[in-house]
Amino acid sequence: MASSPSLPAPRSRSKKPLGKMADWFRQALPRKPAKTPVSPESTRSDDVSQPSSSDRPPPPGPSSEVSPAPPPTHLGAHGSSSSSRGRWSKDYDVCVCHSEEDLAAAQELVSYLESSAAGLRCFLQLRDASPGGAIVSELCQALSNSHCRVLLITPGFLRDPWCRYQMLQALSEAPGAEGRTIPLLSGLSRAAYPAELRFMYFVDGWGPDRGFRQVKEAVTRYLQTLS
């Protein structure tokens, strides 16, 4: 019997080492990006959440700027801070200085001034002085609490020592305040005008209204300088 041809023996496959196989897999797989080292400073800054643009308040515009509030103004008794430093800083607008025998003429002058449109506040000694008060204290207080002083200069005024005292007191308190002391000459000639008042113009009381209108205008003009 014929013998079958002998088949060649199968070649044995050579096995690659494991190290080379691992290198092949590493090359075939996609590489992961390398991690960058994180510094401690950047870690701390990332931990703090930054406010978004929607959370941040808008920058102040011209309408949102708050201007400082003005200081409060203290109103006077008649509702005006400027008036409290002016006319209403004293109790009276006019102090009428007269002799006792000229009381009737002084009352007429006061009635005219108080009933005018300006509503002048007048001090009349026998009407407004405190009962029981000392004469000297009352006279000095009336002069210091009045803006203007009207000296009703008559023959009785020149004979009365208290009227002369008031005249000198008024001149000593405000020697340079023009318009505050208003002499009203009545029943006397120009030659009898007191020498202490020669540097002042006087109101002549010989007119039809006895000089009352000029006195009112002089007082009102001075009060307007206070506002």
Automatic annotation (TrEMBL):
Compartments (UniProt record): Cytoplasm; Cell membrane; Membrane
BP-aspect Gene Ontology terms: inflammatory response; innate immune response; positive regulation of canonical NF-kappaB signal transduction; positive regulation of chemokine (C-X-C motif) ligand 2 production; positive regulation of tumor necrosis factor production; toll-like receptor 4 signaling pathway
Protein known as: Toll/interleukin-1 receptor domain-containing adapter protein
UniProt biased composition (Low complexity): 1-11
A GO CC annotation given for this chain: plasma membrane
Residue numbers spanned by region Disordered: 1-87
Organism: Physeter macrocephalus
Molecular-function GO terms, alphabetical: identical protein binding; Toll-like receptor 2 binding; Toll-like receptor 4 binding
InterPro entries cross-referenced by the UniProt entry: TIR_dom, Tol-interleuk_rcpt_adapt_Tirap, Toll_tir_struct_dom_sf
Keywords tagged on the record: Cell membrane, Cytoplasm, Immunity, Inflammatory response, Innate immunity, Membrane, Receptor
Lineage, broadest ranks: Eukaryota, Metazoa, Chordata, Craniata, Vertebrata
Residue span, TIR domain: 90-219
Pfam families found in the cross-reference section: TIR_2 (PF13676)
Subunit composition and interactions: Homodimer.
Xref: Gene3D superfamilies: Toll/interleukin-1 receptor homology (TIR) domain (3.40.50.10140)
Biased composition (Pro residues): 56-73
Main location: cytoplasm
Keyword Magnesium: no
Coiled-coil ranges per UniProt: none
Domain of life: Eukaryota
Function statement: Adapter involved in the TLR2 and TLR4 signaling pathways in the innate immune response.
